Amino acid sequence: MWGPSHCCLILCLWAGLDALPVAVDKTKVNPSVEEIQPPKSVDTGLHYDRYLREVIDFLEKDPHFRDKLHNTDMEDIKQGKLAKELDFVSHHVRTKLDELKRQEVNRLRTLIKAKQDMTGDKGMAMDHQALLKQFEHLNHMNPHTFEVEDLDRLIKSATNDLENFDKEQHEEFKKYEMMKELDRREHLKTLDEETRKKEEEHYEEMKKKHADHPKINHPGSQDQLKEVWQEADGLDPNEFDPKTFFKLHDTNGDGYFDEQELEALFTKELEKIYDPTREEDDMLEMEEDRLRMREHVMNEIDTNKDRLVSLDEFITATDKKEFVEPDGWETVDQNPIYTEEELKEFEEHLAREEHDLNLKTNDLLKQREELERQQEQLNAQKMELQRAVEHMEQLKTQKTEPLVQAKVPSAVEILPGDTQPMSQGHQQDLPAHS
After folding, report:
1. Reduced to 3 states, what is the DSSP secondary structure of residue 14?
2. Distances (CA, A) of 110 to 114, 131, 134, 245, 367
3. Separation between Cα atoms, residue 14 and residue 9, nearest integer Å
4. Across the chain, which distance is largest between two alpha carbons, in Å?
5. Most buried residue, 99, 135, 297, 324, by CB count within 10 Å?
6. Which of 21, 10, 75 minimizes the C-alpha distance to 262?
7. Nearest alpha carbon to residue 330 among 289, 301, 275, 364
8. Torsion angle, CA of 124/130/135/139, rounded to 10 degrees?
9. In angstroms, rounded to a whole number, what is the distance separating the alpha carbons of residues 196 and 297?
10. Angle at the Cα of 252 (from 52 to 31), degrees rounded to 5?
11. CA–CA distance from 395 to each of 330, 381, 398, 400, 403 (Å)?
């Protein structure tokens, strides 16, 4: 699989199959068209990678557009000249591109909706600028059809994003190194004087052990490539031939060194410095050194800046004086990537972030406490309401019961055959029966 930065070739929209790293059987002089197919698993690392690859795939199927790809250089592509050719592609391809765009717009809308729901649930503010950046590679004002502006935006966005990829990698590594140093210093503060002194001595010892390694050849120099020729290829260094070397290490046989093929050439040099089994060696530093070596060679050899090294570019570079007599090469540990002032600023930045995070945490805790208090009030009101309802039911029941005892007269007060009770005076005049 290609690495993210190698996919500058995708930026060129695969401008010609001669520049496309594909697997070709070297035993066949003229492979068939069916055998020369773009790889299916190109991953640029961009959040719109799939959309980018699918657009390119369908544009490649249009004969007119494919012909223009073969005759357009990288600079013209970047300036948007190729995008104008979209008006001449077939109806079938345009219809498919319309469908791809609608799918991409729906994907982005779903993604943004999910982010809004997530940030809303957590009481966080939405970063609207970051959301708008999600749509930079297409014209979201027209979500239905794929137009020239969409292709132009896609090319420019991919060009810019991929060109910044290495820069972002360097920045991430710089942060990693500064964080590592801050953690080390914080750890020292927790130690007593004697233990701290031993820890410092051990640290300096590890630095010296790491620096004690064989001479590092200048990346891309004759000495460096001859070492690969001898140790990796098993050939006589006195018979070094640039053209043969190029063919041996053009592993996919496309006629170009891509960035991954170049980085593979530096493995022997890096093994002189780094060993994963040694305490003093940091493998992330090794990858940073590999990236710096590749960038340097690309800057020196890749004259048309397409992020590929052709055979002609390679041969031209080997004819230069710098190829035979290069300057020295400094590794990451020999060339510090941050100053003490930058480290202090980074520490202050982390402190501010931690302070802001604590404020947000405290705010969330207060919100939680307030919600719990409100819930308790609601529960108390609910219980009070239930008691009131029960009391009202009791009163209602008492009012509807017949007052039997109050309305029915006693047997003494009613004479036989008389339905009316006698007054108290009449009861006293009645003779007593013997």
Report:
1. coil
2. 6, 12, 12, 50, 29
3. 6
4. 161
5. 297
6. 21
7. 289
8. 110
9. 42
10. 90
11. 95, 21, 5, 9, 15
Q: Angle CA(100)–CA(103)–CA(109) in degrees, nearest 5?
A: 140
Q: What confidence tens digit (pLDDT) does each residue in 180-237 have?
A: 999 999 999 999 999 999 999 999 999 999 999 888 999 999 999 999 999 999 999 9
Rg over CA atoms, the chain: 41
Cα–chain-centroid distance for residue 190?
Answer: 35
Q: What is the DSSP letter of 309?
A: E
pTM: 0.65
Tokens of 165: 């990829």
Helix, strand, coil in percent for the chain, rounding step 5: 65, 0, 35
Q: With contact defined as beta carbons under 8 Å apart, do 98 and 51 qualify?
A: no
Compute how many other C-beta atoms are within 10 angstroms of the C-beta atom of residue 104. 24
**pLDDT score at 416:** 52
Each residue's pLDDT tens digit, 85-108: 888 999 999 999 999 999 999 988
Mean pLDDT of 324-349: 92
Residues 342, 243: Cα–Cα separation, whole Å: 45
Surface-to-core class of residue 347, CB atoms within 10 Å of its CB (0-12 exposed, 13-18 middle, 19+ buried): middle
Residue whose entry in the numeric block shows the structure tokens 């801050």: 182
Q: Give the up-direction half-sphere exposure of residue 399: CA atoms within 13 A in the CB hemisphere.
A: 6
User: CB–CB of 2/42 below 8 Å?
Assistant: yes
Tell me: the pLDDT tens digits for 287-313? Answer: 999 999 999 999 999 998 888 899 999
Average pLDDT, the chain: 81
Contact 49, 43 (CB under 8 A): yes
Q: Which two tokens stand for residue 171?
A: 């920045």
For residues 78 and 160, give the distance between their C-alpha atoms in angstroms, rounded to a whole number.
Answer: 10
Instruction: Decide which of 283 and 31 is more confident.
Output: 283
